[in-house]
Amino acid sequence: MLQIWQNYIKMKRSNAVMEDVKKDEVVDKQPQDESKKEKKHKLQVRIEELEAENKELNNKYLRMLADTENYKKRIQAERLTDKKYASSGFAQALLTPYEQFAKIVEFPTDNDLLKNFLIGFKMIKDQFEQALESEGVKEIKALGEMFDAKVHHAIEKDNQKDKANGIVLEVLQKGYYFKDRILRPAMVKINEWSEEDGKNE
Questions:
Q1: Is 175 part of any domain?
Q2: CATH number of the domain residue 111 falls in
Q3: How far is residue 181 from each of residues 15, 35, 146, 177, measured CA to CA in Å?
Q4: Are 187 and 124 in the same domain?
Q5: Which end of the chain is more exposed for a tag (fewer CB within 10 A), N or C?
Q6: How does pLDDT run across 61-103, given as a tens digit for each residue?
């Protein structure tokens, strides 16, 4: 009987110890749970920060990529333009000797020998002109055309009322295109008049 009682006392003590241990575990578990929540929150905040940084870096990369592509396109366009108009300076340099040569072959003469020479020179002049045209040099139409400030420079004026107002009366110096650019504008005399009390201005 005593043995049974002693065993009972031991069992009660053991149960009491177990209860204390459980209580301690519950007490210890609370701060641990709070610590886990705090760590989880910090981790979530860090993830959001990294996602934001990643998004910003990705946007910067895309902008830089677009800028690079635009730069490449601009450089390519500039190279094509430079190549297209590379000989414009050379063409312009040829205009003055070409025009002087063209005037010489139109020189009037009664000398048969000189006429024969001029016929040969005119053939050379025509070849010269064809070579310029093949490179993109083309004369700007001016005589009898309406004045266009984009391609004509008016350096003289006249007031002939029997002709249209603003028409080009005379070409003082020919103008030329080089492909789709103006190599040199035409220097012209234009017709300009107005009516005021039946009088020319």
A1: yes
A2: 2.30.22.10
A3: 105, 77, 20, 6
A4: yes
A5: N
A6: 889 989 999 999 999 998 988 888 888 888 888 898 899 888 8
